[in-house]
Amino acid sequence: MAATFLLIPPTNRAQDSSWSFPFQEYWDMARELNVLVVDDDPIDQRLISSALRKCSDTINIRIADGGVEALDSFSREGVPDLVVTDIKMPGIDGHQLVDLIRGTPKYCCVPVVAYSTSMDEQDIRSAYMEGANAYIVKPSSQANYIEVGRAIIDFWTKTAELPRLN
């Protein structure tokens, strides 16, 4: 088995304007955040998408109408960097979706934001126990969605600066 190494000699980048990172396109791809919004309500889909677009100008938003479509999207369009899901949906609901994401090795590290109209402590606790990274009670202000979105994007950009390999 052969190994390949890339050696980059030291250079003073301030004096050498021709220097660029050799795999810049991969780093640029890693900075684009792919978000999957999962909700059966088109109004909520638009509200969440609009708020997320205000968080970053390098965001790609995909929409799924439910849990089944979300899982199909994972295999069809690739694993998203973030899933934002409603809890109460027909078919595979948000609780089941979070559980399936966390139970699948290829998907288990994807951050998940759950949201619902329920303010019941048990529902919120269940979402976190299943593996949600955040929980938002709706209706919520667009500012709140933006705040949560920015926090997750900030986390992502500070901890995941390696190119995706999927």
UniProtKB/TrEMBL annotation:
Read off the InterPro entries from this record.
CheY-like_superfamily, Sig_transdc_resp-reg_receiver, TCS_response_regulator
Which BP terms from GO are recorded?
A: phosphorelay signal transduction system
Which keywords does the record carry? Answer: Phosphoprotein
User: Do the record's keywords include Endoplasmic reticulum?
Assistant: no
Q: Does the keyword Phosphoprotein apply?
A: yes
Task: Tell me where in this chain the PTM 4-aspartylphosphate is found.
Answer: D86
Q: Name one Pfam family in it.
A: Response_reg
- Every copy of the Response regulatory domain together lies at 34-153
CDD domains to which the protein is assigned, alphabetical: REC_Rcp-like
Q: Write down the PANTHER family for this protein, in alphabetical order.
A: RESPONSE REGULATOR RCP1 (PTHR44520:SF2), RESPONSE REGULATOR RCP1-RELATED (PTHR44520)
The name on file for this protein is: Response regulator
